[in-house]
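Forgive a beginner's question, but might I ask you for the amino acids of a protein and the tokens describing how it folds?
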Amino acid sequence: MPTDCLFCRIVAGDIPSTKLHEDDLVIAIRDITPQAPTHVLVLPTAHIASAAELTDADGPLLGHLFVVAASVARQEGLDGGWRLVSNVGDDGGQTVDHLHVHLLGGRPMTWPPG
């Protein structure tokens, strides 16, 4: 686990967070700069830099990550719908080099934004 990775430090408990879910594979934490009324980050506990590094062997982990996201969405009362967003690479808007998805909800999610 890289010591300079923000999310690895959160997983290790070195940086405090508001955890909504935690197991051996995945954690879900509230985003400290929410972009929607509900903004939760769901990430693997193991360091994977981005979705670009995923392999077929990561299928079970990704399935579990999506199950956790759906569970947290229900727990947060997002029955009317929600969005999962994953940014990949610098040009894709990824600012932390650790695979994660943003669970967004609590207001209508229209596209394009605005």
User: Anything to note?
Assistant: The first strand starts at residue 19 and ends at 22.
